[in-house]
Write a structure and sequence with these properties.
single chain, about 280 residues, alpha+beta, Phosphorylase Kinase, domain 1, Transferase(Phosphotransferase), domain 1, 2 domains, 12 strands, about 20% strand, globular, binds adenosine-5'-triphosphate, binds magnesium ion
Amino acid sequence: MISNLIKKLKKYSFLHNNYTLVKFFFTGVFFIVCNYMPITTKIKGLNVKSIKIFKFMLWHEGFAYFTGKLYNSDVFIKVDTKLHLLSNDILSYERLTELPEMEDKLVKIIDYSVGDQIEIVLYDFVLGQELTEQAIIQDPNLIVELYDIIVDINTQGIIHRDINLNNFLITNEKVKIIDFTFANSLGETLGFTELRVQTERDRRLLKYLGLGLNPEPFVWNDFYSVCQILKRIMLNHQSKCDENTCKMFSHYINELKCYAEDSNYTYVLSEHSGR
Ligand SMILES: Nc1ncnc2c1ncn2[C@@H]1O[C@H](COP(=O)(O)OP(=O)(O)OP(=O)(O)O)[C@@H](O)[C@H]1O
Ligand SMILES: [Mg+2]
């Protein structure tokens, strides 16, 4: 009888193997039950129609995603009910659109409502895909676009802090950067909201941010992250790289190393910083 019970339990061992997935799922279900109505009411208040849940499996830490229609255009809706960081997306967008060359590298923010319990930002819906190592191998110039974007952002005094391929979308063979939720200022204070390093939850989130692609848990440098991305591509796909591509990637890795060590482009979160 005990062995039968063990067999049955083993069937459910996927629960242990996929603990994070299961946790996200139940967090999502709990979130829908408790927050769905107030969120959709708020989204409707911004005149959005045909609201639909989007990428449910990515919902986490009070972030939820929806799509909808605003005056017949498709919108991507990002909701933040816990961390209240969406003002960082707006601040970055406003500052970066001051650079005319950045306009088509950003996703347009159409409307927003921030500053209370449920924060919402409406973006143009991008019909495209997230950047992948495979896409870069097929079109190595994508890495140049990515690099140019980081140069523009950093020279405008902003550090993204979550540079990984998921935060770039390709549309019409052009790269756009998204997700400035955890961005901050390099040098001059621009009014970004920082997570609180003192609290356990925020420390966990900060450590996860750019994990593996930042120099240290509480130190970020966007150039360092791009350099790591390139190194991984070289490691995983070297056999598929032709000679010119390999040369180009090595050149960029060397160039990025200098920026990656430059303290002007490095953001260090002090143990005592907070909101
Ligand atoms: N404007 C957009 N149009 C279509 N899809 C989008 C758009 N912006 C983001 N997405 C998709 O929605 C998902 C979530 O976006 P986003 O990167 O902003 O959040 P996240 O990474 O889950 O959250 P976090 O802010 O915690 O990093 C991503 O998979 C992304 O591809
Ligand atoms: Mg993201």
